[in-house]
Amino acid sequence: MNDFNDRMRRILLEERAKLTGNLLLEHQQFDEMIHQHEIGDSIDEVSTTIDKNLLERLGANIFMSVQRIDVALARMENGTYGVCVKCGKMIDKARLEVLPEASMCIDCQKSTTHHR
User: Fold this and answer.
1) 4 neighbors 93 (Cβ within 8 angstroms)
2) Which of 16, 49, 86, 102 could pair with 108 as two cysteines, CB 3.0-4.6 Å apart?
3) Maximal C-alpha separation, the chain
């Protein structure tokens, strides 16, 4: 593995650890909120529902980010990291510097996003 990939691996692993920690924190906050709701008489149920939905969405977003990182790490292992999954061309290193989990080159990403 080259220096660039080693650096990207470190960045991805650090981000994964941070996100995983955030996901655990969100889960703990969710559990605390549910516990407070169960024992608290004066909690506004609408506010609690909004908080619950927000925490669930945040957790889902974090989970999806961790999955993208895991895919990038797996691509490093099988030697396809930095290769666009759509066109097979190399993803520009500047793009990977900004978005290390990118699986498509900027052109393919734009065309995919444009068609949605």
Assistant:
1) yes
2) 86
3) 60
- Residue 39 has a pLDDT of 52
Q: Which residues pair with 90 in a beta bridge?
A: 83
Are the C-beta atoms of residues 29 and 55 closer than 8 Å to each other?
Answer: yes
pTM above 0.70, yes or no: yes
Domain total of the chain? 2
Residue 94 structure tokens: 């500047």
Q: List CB contacts of 36: < 8 A, sequence separation 6 or more.
A: 43
Give the structural domain span for 114. 82-116
Residues 15 and 33 in one domain: yes
CA 87 remoteness from chain centre = 23
Residues 43-64 have pLDDT tens digits of 555 556 656 666 677 778 888 9
* Same domain for 70 and 33: yes
Average pLDDT, the chain: 83
The yes-or-no verdict on residue 13 having pLDDT over 60 is yes
The three-state secondary structure class of 105 is: coil
- Check whether residue 59 and residue 87 sit in a common domain: no
pLDDT of 84 above 80: yes
